[in-house]
Amino acid sequence: MPDTPLLQVTGLNGGYGGKPVLQGVDFHVNEGEIVAIIGRNGVGKSTLMKTLIGLLPNQRGTVHLRGQQIDNLSAHRRARLGIGYVPQGRDVFPRMTVLENLLVGQSISGRKIDGMLEQVHGHFPILQERASQRAGTLSGGQQQQLAIGRVLMGGPSMVLLDEPSEGIQPNIVQGIARIMVDLNARTGLGVVFVEQNLDMIRAMAQRCYVMDKGRITASLTRADLDDQDRLRSYLSV
Amino acid sequence: MDNASPLRRTLALIQGPQTLGRGRRFWAGFAVVLALACAYPMFADSYDVGNNVYFFNWLFMALGLSLIWGYGGSLSFGQTAFFGVAAYCYGVLTINLGDAYGLTLFSLVLAVACSALFAAVLGYFMFYGRINGVFLGIVSLSVTLVLERFMAQTAGPEWAIGAARLNGFNGMGGMPSLTIPWPGGPIVLYPDLPLYYLTLALLVVIYLGLRILVNSRFGNVLVAIRENPLRAEMLGYDIRRYQLMAFVIGSALAGLSGVLYTSWGNYITPASMGMTAAALPIVWVAVGGRGDLTTTLVGTLLVLIVFQMLTIHGSQYALVVMGALLVVTVLVAPRGIVMALVEGAMRLTRRKEAR
Amino acid sequence: MTHILETRQLNKRFGGLHVTGNVDFALDAGEMHCLIGPNGAGKSTFFRLILGEHLPDSGQILFQDQDITRAKPFQRIRQGISVKFQVPGIFKELSVRQNLVIALQHHVDPRLLAEEIDRLLEFLNLSHAQAQLAGNLSHGQKQWLEIGMAIGLKPRLLLLDEPTAGMTPDETHATGEMLKQLNAEGMTLLAVEHDMAFVRQIAQRVTVLHLGKVFAQGSIDQITADPRVAKIYLGEVDA
Amino acid sequence: QDTTPIKLGVLEDQSGDFALATIGKVHAIQLAAEEINAAGGIDGRPLELVEYDTQSDNTRFQEFMRRVLQRDKVDAVFAGFSSASREAYRPIVNQFDGLAFYNNQYEGGVCDANMIVTGAVPEQQFSTLLPYMIEKFGPNVYTIAADYNFGQISAEWVRKIVEENGGKMVGEEFIPLGVSQFSQTIQNIQGAKPDFVVTLLVGTAQASYYEQAGAANVNLPMASSVNVGQGYEHKRFKAPSLKDMYVTVNYIEELDTPASKEFVEKFHAKFPNEPYINQEASNSYAAVYLYKQLVERAKSTDLAEIRKVIAAGDVCVEGPGGQMCIDPKSQHVSHTIHLAHVTADHSIEFPQKWDGIKPYWLGDAGCDLTKDDPSAQYTPSNPPPKS
Amino acid sequence: MVDSLNLVFSFLYQFGDAFAFLVLSACGLAVIFGMMGVINLAHGEFIMCGAYVSTRAAHAGVPMPLAILLGAACAGIAGMIVELLVIRRLYQRPLDTIVATWGISMIVTQGMLILLGPSMQGVGTPFGSFVVGGYSYSVYRIILMLSAVATLAVLWLMFTRTRFGLLSRATIQVPHVAEALGVNTNLVYSVTFGLGAALAGLAGGLYAPTMTLVPTMGASFMVEAFVTVVVGGADIFLGTAPAALILAVIKAGLTSWQGQLAGQIGLLIAVIIVIRILPRGISGKILRERG
Ligand SMILES: Nc1ncnc2c1ncn2[C@@H]1O[C@H](COP(=O)(O)OP(=O)(O)OP(=O)(O)O)[C@@H](O)[C@H]1O
Ligand SMILES: Nc1ncnc2c1ncn2[C@@H]1O[C@H](COP(=O)(O)OP(=O)(O)OP(=O)(O)O)[C@@H](O)[C@H]1O
Ligand SMILES: [Mg+2]
Ligand SMILES: [Mg+2]
Prior knowledge:
Chain B is mainly α. In chain B, 71% of the residues lie in helices and 3% in strands.
């Protein structure tokens, strides 16, 4: 169904209280696509993610998921529609165990999905090994793995990842990229991710948007992505 | 800037990032308010003057709590313990020493020092024992409740220090008011003009002094500890020492309130350290806006005045209205009532200017 | 004094987990050293031990030949260690400028403080945001601010836990250059990083930590060429 | 003729812990004032009440005592329930040389020319109650008392009078204010095997003792100077938890005399929601009439003139519970003391009464306000200095 | 021999009595504080609400156990309303909840006095008494002890074995992430606060037959409740029960040895000492050891 994209964002404005950050963001993600968003520090990437999931109100513009307008829904309702969100800076539930953190992730679908826990453990063995450690005491990279695993637990149909590679060791970064690509291929999982790590972008993204000063300023194709210098130029000052 | 003397530099700290109110307009306003306060007794009867002194008495404790809680981030639920300790010390000292030769003033200093010492001991126990957050609040509350319960049962004649009977729950009375020795006969500071000016002067001095303190390096570290104690320590600050110092200063101010209150009414009871009494300073400071000295000062005064007016005119309904006011204030004025009022006023003037 | 920092048989456990095991580690004065290793290898814990946030179960830590194993954190900072944490530790409710004031007031002459901070803000690219509350910065900006506070202390030894996380490649590169400059001015650097490009850019020596133990040590080329390191850590890229 | 109103300040707790026992006092004062005004006032001057709710808070007493004396310039003040609140305002009354009526049963001992106390004191209540109890139930006495001045001093009186009457203390326990759980106390009492228990409990929390002792089936006779008469526990707790409670009161609502019945009728007609008319309400009511007489005879509201009248020694009124006369030495009041017995179904019978019981102790001990004014509070173990 | 058995029984009874009082007064507060970080100074008023409602119901002929549950339910509903109107807006500012709940407590206490008068007639303690070794004891006190244990057990099951417990803990720790993971955080807050209030109401209902019913009655629970919660620490299950155990031993011991004042002061001093030794309360200690 190429005519109803998975996610359609038009003219989105948003920010914090009186301070506008997003100034009319337009982009879309097609069904079964992995799309990256890149941009320098402070241009509003995280703000965009938070507005998409509904943690920040949008002041103008619309967000449609498979043709359904969702920008008027609360965050948990959007999540129930199958959107998973991994925040920047991990935000695991620090005083709950690793296993409990994963179980909370099931709420996205509101039910337990058989075999999902085993799958997640398969992706991230450390989460099984440390199942009863309190999440707040995990190392930074372990927390990041937990945050990704947690969102997968709910079997989302699309995920928003905010800098998923941050703090993760190189081979696991590759692993995460593989997992996402694999899920995308098997289940049609849609992925929107913000990233600075060029290796990861190249390993995962099918398309890429460049963001600057609260707007989408360029849209790159897969071919553009393979052009290292071109990509770099979008991220430099 | 370079050749500014240390004194000038210290004075410049009277305004800074840690306090609201900067620039000419603020200080002009301050001068006007101060002038009004000085002129006030000319237009008011002696009841109002004395009643205002009574309000002023509490402000020191509120300012102290603002320092400890608002700036330092440690919620002490037991400021009344220091209030009580200083108050009883003052009572015991003056009943035994009498009011001649300025001994009441000496007793004031000694009583405040006692509360500071007590705060230093308790504070050392708490801060160096790494007690923080609500636990700090509850330990300090427990201490004040222990003092209350203990003092409440000292009714018997065996509970006397020198000539001073502690006198249990009924409270200790009969201590002299503050008295200034004067060539033409000592001035007894009854709740009237001289006491009004003395308290006002103390208030101004302490308010300005605290402003300097919180904008100084000490104050910077204090707010840093409030925001992120670990980070503050990792910048090389001995955070426990700073917390302790703020606690001692704030508690000494609570002690000052205690002495002034006792001298004002010639009376102190254990109830002044009870649960209700202990919660009140927190309410004043939170409602006024704990993060700033000026809002604390004005807010506390406002709450005291409004609550008294409500009690006078509201009979049985006073408490209901007070409760409702507290709830509404917290809901509509997250940064304290004074901040809300100031912002509201600014918005109004701006709108007028726009027209 | 050749070693500015030295740990001897440093041990730390959490419950049953041996997080650092008999770590012998020495850092030469004036070098730029990177600490790498898998997630959970114990890198951040090692930092916390050096800083005194955790006390070791056994072993010794020497800084400039002085035993600081039991010293309080603030005392270690005063002796010339400084840190940028993995998770930004800033004063959220204070302005960006105020954050730096607190970091610098300790050792900068009050008369020069304002200038010094202006320079630092410029350097961190945060001049435009100096009046903003630090909590409202973007993630990357917070990292910058934190680095600014750490170097503002003018330490002899600077510990950096993932300084470039969340930065664009260009910014990462700029950070590397900045660190090199600081190093040239005499600061010893110990950084934890997962970004190999950055490690390659700055590190004179690299130590790999694995399961709480020193797993390998050497130049970046030696490390990347080590198949064991590739297996546990690097994967196929960059190997 | 002077028709400016005579102003009476009324500082009573209409909210907070003590409201239960004190709202009735305010109403009683209102009732008396209304009657007096309807009958033409005091020498043609109407009474005007200036009321403040002191919220069971000592500091409010200080604030408002200053207010009524300085701002409202009242001629007399009726103020206070707890002894602490009285002690809180007394320095201020002294400072402004005002006149305050304390219309409350209390631990006794206030020797202060600015105060008139219309409540009963321990010697009046215990010298009557305890001999009766010892004779009727036996000599072994256990006291539980609130752990503060009232309880401790009252317990001291109990000890003294029990020993004077050949009884024996088998136990004494003090309960901090606000305590509401009594399992251990109940066990201690059972262990000591007294013939009766003297309960000097204060505040609503402590009253829970009765329910809990009842539930544990302690089943001992009880004696008190304060419970029932103030907090009408027999009305609030389910029978038979106060069974065989004996209290000496100078008034309670059940008193079966014509004066009492008339008072109850008037009171309930005006305040139909009043749950109970306690001893303190009656004292407050009578106090207004005492004041009326004092002013009429002094022909002035001036304190010095009024005290001259008091010094004459014959100021008496007929209160709802009987005759009350002011003792010039202590400015306390003599009472008719009624022994109230709570039966198994919580009805009250009055097995005995004593007329004209005087507040003798202060005067005997050396307080003489006609001579000098120490403005102090004394106790048997801390008596006035012998001059 | 028999004598010493009697002694043991009497101490156990006193201990159980203190334990029940501590647990029941603290549970509601512990849920609200431990789970939500809200210091609820209106806790006593929810207790009073439970006591009043259950007493009214009992007067109207509702059987006692039902009346008590009704009291708990009403307090719970009142709690949810308070949460909706006030507390919900203050989660980001937990210290302001001190002021707000203090205000609510003033409104409720005085409002009750105005509406229902200064006191309410009690219903009397049911079940009579029994005798062991010359001392007679109230049967109802045993019921209270059993209720305390049952309450702890139910709560434990609820928070560890149900999804609600999981989601509420997640919500309280990082609300925005929980929300983004599909948790209806508003509902969770509301139910959690309601549960805390209902537990307070339950305590009120259970103690109503044994106490004076006045608008300020909640105050006599407050100190014990706070002390227990704080000694227990942030995790209510790991903390509250052991805290209540320790404090009950201290309180019962000191009270029987030196009287009520010693019991009261001892309790407070125990708090100071325990917190000094375990700065994060008992559960903080347990959690740290577990790693
Ligand atoms: N809570 C907040 N309140 C106010 N302003 C904020 C807040 N969080 C972020 N901002 C501001 O909004 C702008 C965009 O921030 P955002 O976090 O979206 O950036 P970003 O593109 O994700 O950057 P980074 O790569 O550093 O994570 C920044 O200028 C930042 O200062
Ligand atoms: N308080 C604690 N209790 C139990 N385990 C802990 C605690 N703190 C850390 N750990 C464990 O110790 C190990 C080392 O953690 P550390 O944070 O030092 O790793 P790291 O090398 O910095 O990893 P990363 O690259 O992911 O940041 C991890 O397995 C972590 O789960
Ligand atoms: Mg971001
Ligand atoms: Mg780490």
